[in-house]
Amino acid sequence: MKSLHGRPRASRFAAAALAMAIGAALPAVALAKNPMVGGAPMYASKTIVENAVNSKDHTTLVAAVKAAGLVETLSGPGPFTVFAPTNAAFAKLPPGTVETLVQPQNKATLTGILTYHVVPGALTARDLTALVKQGGGEAQIKTVQGEPLVVQAKGKKIYVTDVKGNTATVTIANVMQSNGVIHVINGVLQP
User: Fold this and answer.
1) Model confidence, pTM
2) Which residues lie across from 171 on neighbouring strands?
3) Where are the beta strands (DSSP E) in the chain?
4) Average pLDDT score over the chain
5) Which phi and psi (to 5°) does residue 103 adopt?
């Protein structure tokens, strides 16, 4: 995994994208004014971080963002697209993984994983689907971390695959934030 030391701009983008992911929770087929995510309304007038801290489904992600020092970045202007893993997604990792990653000595690794969930710009589900169509069935998008993600669309579902071949499904798309968009996913992507 690549360290973001010496690349503060990349770190800021990654953090913002991650924070957006934390607060994501809107179905792709509908754009509710203030969608509920993790039992809390997500306000388009608030930043990714301001919304994410209220989602009960993203407490692990919020803790990870804090441990990686990405709160300020994800509170910045962006825009960012964040693929936000839920607590259940983090729970699928081997036992002890999250506890190990949030330790200070693993900050660079954690930052790399979190920024791998963030893409510069605001890409809605419609934008992602259009990129997939243009790509003949799949599209590569570059993350703030530097490695690509592969996006596919099948029916009304959007899938995101990491460089290791792990695939996550977008379960809630288009959670709009003042500094980007969050898409809630059911897996943790790894560079």
Assistant:
1) 0.81
2) none
3) 36-37, 40-41, 80-85, 118-120, 139-142, 148-154, 157-161, 167-177, 180-185
4) 84
5) -75, 145
